[in-house]
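Notes from the 1:1 (GR / supervisor)

We went over the backlog. Supervisor wanted to see one worked example end to end before approving the batch request, so GR pasted a single chain during the call. The sequence is below; no edits were made to it. Supervisor asked that the structure be written out right there so they could see what the output format looks like.
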Amino acid sequence: MSGREQVEGMWTIWSRKRRHRGSLASRLTPHAGGGTAGFTFIEIMVVVAILAILAALVVPRIMGRTDDAKRTAAKVQIRNIEGALQLYKLDNGVYPSTEQGLKALVEKPSVGVIPKKWKIGGYLQKLPEDPWANPYKYLSPSQKGDYEIICLGTDGEVGGEGINADITNWNLDKD
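Structure output shown during the call:
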């Protein structure tokens, strides 16, 4: 057999293999032989292994952050409540009393000093709950100033440290 015949023979074998392997589209469509082409078990296992490695890297970073995210959400909600309280005071000259509570931002108070210029529709659409589904505590006046908004944190109890620490409008910038 001459060198040319060998090269032609190798070319024929290579082109047959290439035709059978084909592109991704050809693997997903039926062949003239009646069967369907597909991915091999090894190819599927390689993809599964890659996904497992990615999950192993990403999941631990996300899973431990739930409490941090909730604490951040509580801080944002407290700032929104503070903004509504400022508008209430601009309209009425005083903050709602402890007795009136934060509910005075949603509906016109019927106890204590009744505001004369209370904004129709309120200052908040609805009163938010903290991220742990507890109501915010409100004191006015408080020992720290005109008012205090308190979220009891993860444990739902007064005091605590770390993730259980209370969040107030006076300690928003701490942490």
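Supervisor's comment: The CA atoms of residues 66 and 97 lie 34 Å apart.
Batch request approved.
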